[in-house]
Amino acid sequence: MTSIEKMLGPSRPLPRVGAKARIAHFGGDFERATVLAVHEEGRRLEVRCEGGEVLEFVLSPATARFVSAASVHGPRLELLGE
Which pLDDT does position 6 carry in this prediction? Predict the structure, then answer.
């Protein structure tokens, strides 16, 4: 890691248990969520939606976004900063 990388840190929030997130549903609706578990070195996450449902998301190697583990056309997960 170069000194500039150490100064700047990651360009987006890293997944961690307890982190706040939002789920982007098809059609533009958003729902708040909280990260419950982090697996596979941060590439697979379990989150609890504000309604209580638990969903699983995986990091897409093609887009570097968290997408639904259940369906290609499912919702996306966005991690929120502090």
Answer: 57
The CA distance from 4 to 35, in Å, is 29
Prediction pTM value: 0.83
Pick from 58, 50, 61: nearest CA to 23: 50
Contact 57, 70 (CB under 8 A): no
Kindly list the domain boundaries of the chain, sorted by start residue.
13-79
Contact call for residues 21 and 35 (beta carbons, < 8 A): yes
Cβ-based neighbour number of residue 39 at 10 Å: 12
Instruction: Give the integer Cα–Cα distance in Å for 34 and 52.
Output: 10
Reported residue count of the chain is: 82
20 CA to centre of own chain: 9
Q: Which CATH class is domain 13-79?
A: mainly beta
Q: In Å, how far from its chain's centre is CA 70? A: 14
